[in-house]
Amino acid sequence: MAACSAVLLTVLSAACATSGQTETKQADQNAPATLSFWSTGGDDETATFQKAADLYHQKHPNVTVKVQTLSWSDAYAKLLAAATSRNGPDIISGGMTWTIQFGTRGAMVDLRKYGADSLKAQALPAQWESAISPDGSVYGVPLDMSTLALYYRTDLLEKAKVEPPKTWEELTAAIDKLKAAGVKKPYSQDWGNLDWIGYFNYLYQAGGSFYTADCKPSLNTPQAEQALTYWADLYKKHGAPTATVEGSDALDTGTAMVVAGNWIAKGIDVNKPKLKGKWAMSTIPAGPAGPTAFIGGRAIGVTSFSKYVETGADFVKFMYSDEAITAISDEARKRNISYISPRADKIVNGSVFTPEQAQVFEASLKTGKAAPGCPGWDESAPDVTKQLQSVILGKSDARTALAEAAKVMERNAG
């Protein structure tokens, strides 16, 4: 999941309000139709979703869905332009909360009108909650999932007589033992390093949250302070590098333990052959309130300016079918992509990972939480990150930084 630009989101608020605009005239549902699907990610991921689109075409010969890649670096800008001009794709996928931001401004279809809320029973509850607007509107549904794991060098842990840490206390103790054993790089973080996603894990593991259930900012709590202090100390006292090194590269260059996303699991043996047989993975260490890990992924939805809303909604629902998920998984396996289905029952069954890896991800996802779908969160996230970084870099204390972050969230909540 990519962080959205605060500037872009401000422009969106000013320029993309679409309430009161004329509803797009719908095309004849019985005539041949070609729908465009802008998919945020890489070309290999686009190819996997195209397999499902081709399968949909086999079942509906009059309908062709063409999937086009948007890179994470410019996807939001392109989707913003499409929403502002009301001229663009029929279907989009992007960050989990993006469809909420566009939907509240009139650029997305509420898929409840077309029965997509029936997919809730198949989705992981925490991820579904993240994709759904606080008012209950279903502007997008989860398309896939991502989460974190602790990857570790078995040879280096054995050298230091260290077991994979399961708690915060065991993590810091393991770092100290690795250092004492001569391991120069005991620990690093990849996904979420110096970012709100990295803090997210510790915040929820301490029993805190970014918002209350009714979307009130909730960073002025002892739990939030405890979490930030512990996370910052991993850098300041225990030597976690502030420079981000991709997880498999970190392992390959001698880092003993790395917190990274599920997407590196498929590529380590292929891209780093010297590591084969020397690495393993487990869930990230748990905090005092439990083992919560961040759940990411993409949401998929239908634009309100599409001429094929009903067909687009039907395609979105089709993406949850056994046959679509099988087609995506098979292609992902061929391309060595770490795809995790949005359906909770498919995390292990039919997984592209080894059984052991799939079980780690299943455990992580079942106890995880997803990004808040509260109003103003996407606008706030970059500034919240800056406040968190100020503590890691020694420019502020935890309580002050959290108070400032809460002010930003309150201001953007509108």
Largest sheet: 6 strands, mixed
CATH superfamily of the largest domain: Periplasmic binding protein-like II
General form: globular
What is the radius of gyration? 22 Å
Mean pLDDT: 92
- The share of residues in extended strands comes to 5-15%
Structural class: alpha/beta
Helical amount: 40-55%
CATH class of the largest domain: Alpha Beta
Q: List low-confidence stretches.
A: 1-20
At the fold tier of CATH, the topology name of the largest domain is D-Maltodextrin-Binding Protein, domain 2
Count of individual domains:
2
How many helices? The count is: 16
* Distance separating the two termini: 25 Å
CATH architecture descriptor text of the largest domain: 3-Layer(aba) Sandwich
Q: How many beta-strand segments?
A: 11
Q: Give the SSE order as H and E letters.
A: HEHEHEHHEEHHEHHHEHEEEHHHEHH
List the helices and strands and how they pair.
Layout: H1 6-15, E1 33-40, H2 43-59, E2 63-70, H3 75-85, E3 91-95, H4 98-103, H5 125-131, E4 141-142, E5 146-153, H6 154-159, H7 168-180, E6 185-189, H8 196-205, H9 222-236, H10 247-252, E7 255-261, H11 268-271, E8 279-282, E9 294-296, E10 298-302, H12 309-318, H13 322-334, H14 355-366, E11 369-370, H15 377-392, H16 398-413
Parallel strand pairs: 1-2, 1-3, 6-7, 9-11
Antiparallel strand pairs: 3-10, 4-10, 5-7, 5-8, 5-9
